[in-house]
Amino acid sequence: MWVNGNYDILIMTITLIVVAGLVLEVIRLNRKLDNLNSKVDYDFKTVERLFADVWKLEEINKDQVKVNVHLAEDIAELQKKLKRKK
Hints:
The protein is mainly alpha-helical. It has one helix spanning 5-85.
């Protein structure tokens, strides 16, 4: 089974280097994945805040439309009163 003591040491050394390289690569990819996940969470929170701001703007716009409608009604009523006085 064992060819020669020198070859055995060489094969075990190469195997150890390959396994260590794979372990380091897995650790590097895991760190990169964690970093990307934290960025995604941050970006998601930013997007949530932006949607909340847009929602508030839509509500403000709805209120502004109501104000504009009432203002237009008041102007029309004042124009009618002005025409009656002339």
